[in-house]
Amino acid sequence: MRRRAFVRGLAAAGAGLAVPLPSAGAAAAARPSAAGPSAAGSWQEVPAPAGQEAAHLAAVAAAGPAAAWAVGEQGRNGGTLGTPIALSWDGSAWSPTDLSHLTYSGGLRAVAAGPPGGAAWALGTDTAGHDQLLAWDGTTWRETDFPGRGEPGTRLTDVASGTDGDFWVSGRHGDRAGLLHGDGRTWRWCSPLPDEAAPTPTGVHVTPGGDVWVFGDIIARWDGAWTVVPRQLGIRASVSGLLPVAHDDIWLTGFAYGVGGPPGKPPGVTLQHWDGTRWTDVKAPFGVGLLSGIVGDADGRPDRIAGWDFWDQKRAHYLRWDGAAWVSERGPETATTFMPEALTRIPGPDGGYWSVGTTSSSPYPPAQLRIERLSAPRVVR
Fold this sequence. Notes:
CATH topology of the domain at 5-12 and 37-138 and 227-374: Neuraminidase
Strand content: 35-45%
Mean pLDDT: 88
Order of helices and strands: HHEEEEEEEEEEEEEEEEEEEEEEEEEEEE
Shape: globular
CATH architecture of the domain at 5-12 and 37-138 and 227-374: 6 Propeller
Number of strands: 28
């Protein structure tokens, strides 16, 4: 799912991945004194269709074990935008989707899926610079109308499925931050955030109980009215994921570059918890790199986090909640790099998780798509 502030935070808006490597001096200053803990996991690589070079997947969503979608960009070269790429899963293989009918600059950046047999939606931006809402028609993605489409001041940043077949889109309308809500046939903008200067949220999350949250430079809950959670962002910080378990139990993931530093300084991971009164920094199993998203189990409790460990780039560094703390869970080793950009739970008792991203830490050739799956994990509660 989700998320996709991750990509925007690493480079300029829509510019793809760009985590520069540090100088030797920076590396010596940042390297930990000993390797972090490691726990064996059953993550496995799943073959992904080859795209053009500089390809990455920015978002993934699953309706069930036999239906999933992943979207991203291919053909980017530094600041030169590429073209959209989209894949679909039929239960046995990932297949590319024909998007030749879309005249878009850059990639698709978000995707959400309803229950099996239901709707799926994605977001992209056309060559005119207008954000677009796309519906899955069973074969490909098609643009659909929504209030404010093509108007100045309208932005769509993320999409999430609701609890009764509806969908929520974070963004901006009439130059005010807010939410677009739809049932698959009609769409309407909810009342905007009360502060006219509120920043545009970059993500949206719906809990199993139906609570709708937006996050990014602002964190707020919508239940017919807005409740804003106080948030003090760090210096050069980005939020990549939010998991609201309860109003006084919220997890936040991301990364921050902090103050200054030598050219090529890598980011540090951000993992925080809200107890209803204040945010507390939580020590992660690794500190240099980033956390690219967080997902809960079927009941919305903490479950998995995807991460990129700067000092061990050849395998994803996932975090698993063991009932008391976040512990390491590693993906399979790769020949180059795996930077996971998005993570989603697969509905169903034997579903597991999808993790998608790219084989590079920067948006240059020869980066290619990479997909991993964790099947039927056993989680200690």
